[in-house]
Amino acid sequence: MNLSRRELSYLLVIKKYNDQGQLAKLSWVAKQLNISPASAYEELSHLEGKGFVKKNRSGIEITDEGKKAVDNLIKAHRVIESLLVEIGFSPDEACKYSTQFDFAVPEEIIDRLHKYLGEPKRCPHGEEIPITTS
User: Fold this and answer.
1) Same topology for domains 5-62 and 64-134, yes or no?
2) What are the domain boundaries of the chain?
3) Which pTM does this prediction carry?
4) With a cut of 70, which residues of the chain have pLDDT below it?
């Protein structure tokens, strides 16, 4: 399922809190994304309906489907970044440019680029490239 950059931004924020052992709070997500709590609530309800997050009184948790979407985005970003460095961009330039379209590149293309690059384990900044499965 294709997700927009905005939807993926929400998932990244929620996953960050979940990875720290905390359920995300609506106010934290809104503040992190610099939006109103009402807008955050609406989008989180939308993401819950799609099965990417679960909300309850205690907070917000990313689902396995949401984690998969985030891992696919991170992989896409880091593979594109690696390719851009390979053709002469600095790591910081590559990161900046990758962010502009990483969410829109189909998974099949990312997988082929990853293979073409020799299946690197890390991006130019030294961050791990997630192993994803279709």
Assistant:
1) yes
2) 5-62, 64-134
3) 0.87
4) 1, 134
